[in-house]
């Protein structure tokens, strides 16, 4: 089994980075072939250029460029070669870090990741699964109910990302109040993530 971990956080001292280490070490213990794409370490360019955007001409979706940029082609190859995708990114302003959103914009493109015109495009992702982990500073429960911001974030991240292909989203876990937690409390979060990986 091959796992692709797509990670976004600039600080190696962060809880997100500790989460990355725990997730990848557990995957390795389970004998997964693991590839990590650390977007900040890669200095990934998140900017979608005009020639790579799709637009409509005569009821057809078109791109000015006939080829995807070389760095994007590399990421596309990783997506095709792996069976399991794990996204790890913090909540910043109730959304993905810009570099992660840029990864989605540039890599998960029409004609590769989904298509409004060719239904066979989505078929190359059949049987693939995805798992999301998002540390955040917000509490996850308010008056005994899930924080509505969490539900909104889930909808616009893991909820919409694969709605045009057959990738199965296993779960999207949020770890709340991270900046305010003790090391022992954060360790419980790491153990939870480890258990979720072991349960795959």
Automatic annotation (TrEMBL):
This is Flavoprotein. The keyword Plastid does not apply. GO terms for cellular component: cytosol. Keywords: Oxidoreductase. Residues 1-157 form the Flavodoxin-like fold domain. The keyword Repeat does not apply. GO terms for molecular function: NAD(P)H dehydrogenase (quinone) activity. PANTHER family: NAD P H OXIDOREDUCTASE-RELATED, NAD(P)H DEHYDROGENASE [QUINONE] 1 ISOFORM 1. It comes from Halolactibacillus halophilus. Belongs to the NAD(P)H dehydrogenase (quinone) family. It comes from the Bacteria. InterPro entries: Flavodoxin_fold, Flavoprotein-like_sf, NAD(P)H_dehydrogenase_qn.
């Amino acid at each position: 089994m091959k796992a692709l971990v797509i990670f976004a956080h600039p600080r190696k001292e962060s809880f997100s980075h500790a989460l990355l280490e725990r997730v990848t070490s557990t995957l390795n213990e389970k004998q997964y072939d693991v590839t990590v794409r650390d977007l900040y370490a890669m200095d990934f360019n998140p900017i979608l250029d005009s020639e790579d955007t799709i637009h409509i001409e005569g009821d057809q979706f078109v791109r000015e460029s006939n080829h995807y940029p070389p760095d994007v082609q590399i990421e596309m190859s990783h997506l095709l070669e792996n069976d399991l995708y794990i996204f790890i990114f913090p909540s910043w302003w109730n959304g993905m870090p810009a570099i992660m959103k840029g990864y989605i914009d540039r890599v998960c493109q029409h004609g590769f990741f989904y298509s409004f015109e060719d239904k066979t495009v989505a078929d190359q992702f059949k049987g693939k699964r995805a798992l999301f982990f998002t540390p955040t500073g917000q509490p996850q429960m308010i008056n005994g109910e899930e924080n509505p911001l969490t539900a909104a974030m889930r909808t616009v991240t893991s909820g919409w990302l694969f709605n045009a292909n057959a990738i199965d989203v296993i779960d999207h876990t949020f770890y709340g109040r991270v900046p305010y937690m003790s090391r022992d409390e954060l360790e419980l979060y790491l153990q939870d993530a480890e258990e979720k990986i072991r349960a795959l």
